[in-house]
């Protein structure tokens, strides 16, 4: 029999997989990398589920997208997405969710700690996604940063603020 906490965490993980997929459908095309809400839900999963369950959540999300379910930005899917301009960002969600969840936990799940953890998680996403974009499109570093990071910074700041606020409200409900 599954322990009650494990069952509860499995349900929350499934919920976050669905939220990440839903966030990918809310996409604004902006060059090779669209503006999406999926990273908001990846970061929120990290601070709510923690590093291990957050990693499982993102891993499941990526696997179902690679298997062909249309859960990536704009309702796309398939292994080809990993070799395109957004592949690095998708792969980067794995270390980002783990590090964000671990840092949030280490910083006592405080709102300030969550913000710091999510900023670092976002830096990880850019540190992997931008070089991948550079290689995928044979761009200069300046161009890769200009199209793969700069247009998203303000929105990511707003998403981090929203996720920190949601995390503060949601955490007491699920404990």
What's the main sheet like?
A: 2 strands, antiparallel
Report the C-alpha radius of gyration, rounded.
16 Å
Number of DSSP E strands: 2
- The level 1 CATH classification is Mainly Alpha
Give a short summary of the structure.
The chain is mainly α.
Structural overview:
This protein is mostly helical and 175 residues long. It has one domain: Orthogonal Bundle (Arp2/3 complex 21 kDa subunit ARPC3). The chain is 73% helix and 2% strand. It contains six helices and two strands; from the N terminus they run αββααααα. The chain has a two-stranded antiparallel sheet with strand order 1-2. A hairpin with a 6-residue loop joins β1 and β2. α4 packs across α6. It is globular and about 50 Å long. The model has no long low-confidence stretch (mean pLDDT 94).
Give me some keywords for this one.
single chain; Arp2/3 complex 21 kDa subunit ARPC3; 175 residues; globular
List the helices and strands and how they pair.
Layout lengths: L3 H22 L1 E2 L6 E2 L1 H29 L20 H20 L4 H27 L3 H8 L4 H22 L1
Helix pairs in contact: 1-2, 2-3, 2-4, 2-6, 3-4, 4-5, 4-6
């Amino acid at each position: 029999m599954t322990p009650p906490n494990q069952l509860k965490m499995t349900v929350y993980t499934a919920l976050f997989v669905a939220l990440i997929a839903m966030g990918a459908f809310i996409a604004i095309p902006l060059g090779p990398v669209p503006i999406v809400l999926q990273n908001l839900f990846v970061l929120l999963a990290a601070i709510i589920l923690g590093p291990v369950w957050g990693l499982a959540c993102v891993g499941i999300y990526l696997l179902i997208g690679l298997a062909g379910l249309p859960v990536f930005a704009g309702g796309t899917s398939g292994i080809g997405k990993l070799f395109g301009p957004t592949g690095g960002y998708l792969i980067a969600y794995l270390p980002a969710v783990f590090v964000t969840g671990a840092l949030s936990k280490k910083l006592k799940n405080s709102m300030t700690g969550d913000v710091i953890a999510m900023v670092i998680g976002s830096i990880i996403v850019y540190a992997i996604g931008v070089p991948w974009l550079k290689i995928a499109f044979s761009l200069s570093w300046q161009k890769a940063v200009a199209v793969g990071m700069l247009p998203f910074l303000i929105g990511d700041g707003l998403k981090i603020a929203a996720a920190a606020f949601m995390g503060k409200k949601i955490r007491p409900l699920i404990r």
